[in-house]
Design goal:
Its cofactor is Mg(2+). The protein is of the alpha+beta class. Helices cover 23% and strands 27% of the residues. The protein binds 2-acetamido-2-deoxy-beta-D-glucopyranose (NAG). 2-acetamido-2-deoxy-beta-D-glucopyranose binds next to helix 6.
Length: 273
């Protein structure tokens, strides 16, 4: 155990020389109830832990899959307010391994800073990957509509928070879940923590660069006062306009069978029933 720890410390020191260590959510535990992220069973082979930063603030957290070039999940606090959507899209400089810029930026800004599109493309999706898609949208995991201020809304327009999502689902039942179902369920919640994710699928877009998820899911843990009092989940196949309501426990079981590993999404205090 001690050996393993030393090895980890050594490994992270070696890393430090060349870019910021992005191997945990240490800079942004506030987006997880009790600071507890999902267990490691969701981690892909080549993960990146992104504390989504924009204009000197953190807005949510994303676990990113650098090989499939889609997020595994985004985690945030639900604070829905209406407001503007962003017109531009951002990428994550830290994923290039060639930049110490610690917040999302546009592709063109990075180009000015001497980071080529090839460097950006290697470990993340770029705008071109999502151009000309038929029947698929840029689906937000952390949705613009659940953020409480304009900077946070803009910050959801980064490609590390986006998956190719069935257009009919995105504009149909998933939209109803995000707007109506979430607002009904959270009526008496003082705080609601949400984790929304995508299960990798067997098809892709952009010539194999970006995975097209088979499922989109979402889980919430609601605090009435200071106690986690209720929790729930939802899951949708990414080629049907249908969302299934589940308990948190049922969603974790479903994900456990899809990933073939035991999945826990929230701290134990969030009710599973
Ligand atoms: C899921 O639950 C919400 C809120 O309770 C409800 O309005 C909606 O109809 C349910 N959806 C399905 C598919 O059962």
């Amino acid at each position: 155990m001690l050996g393993l720890l030393l090895l980890q410390v050594l490994a992270s020191c070696l890393w430090l020389g060349h870019s910021e260590v992005v191997n945990s959510f240490a800079s942004c535990p506030q987006f997880f109830y009790a600071g507890t992220p999902p267990n490691n069973a969701l981690n892909p082979r080549n993960p990146a832990w992104i504390c989504q930063r924009f204009r000197n603030q953190y807005h949510y957290a994303t676990l990113y899959d650098r090989d499939r070039r889609i997020p595994v999940y985004s985690a945030y606090k639900y604070r829905p307010v209406s407001g503007k959507r962003s017109k531009v899209w951002y990428v994550e400089p830290q994923l290039t391994g060639k930049s110490d810029i610690k917040q999302m930026e546009t592709e063109s800004y990075l180009k000015e800073k001497g980071i080529s599109i090839e460097d950006i493309k290697r470990s993340q999706a770029i705008n071109d990957d999502y151009k000309g898609l038929k029947g698929l949208d840029r689906g937000h995991l952390s949705p613009c509509g659940h953020m409480d201020k304009d900077v946070s809304k803009i910050a959801t327009f980064t490609l590390t928070n986006i998956v190719p999502q069935d257009s009919t689902l995105n504009k149909g039942q998933w939209n109803i879940y995000e707007s109506k179902t979430m607002s009904q369920r959270t009526k008496d919640c003082k705080d609601t923590y949400v984790i929304t994710g995508a299960v990798p699928g067997s098809t892709d877009i952009a010539g194999g660069r970006v995975n097209r998820p088979s499922y989109i899911w979402s889980a919430a843990c609601c605090l009435v006062g200071t106690k986690p009092t209720r929790a729930w989940g939802a899951i949708a196949e990414n080629d049907k306009d249908e969302v299934e309501n589940l308990s948190l426990g049922e969603l974790e079981k479903r994900l456990t069978s899809l990933y073939r590993e035991m999945i826990t999404l929230f701290n134990n205090a969030c009710p599973r029933e």
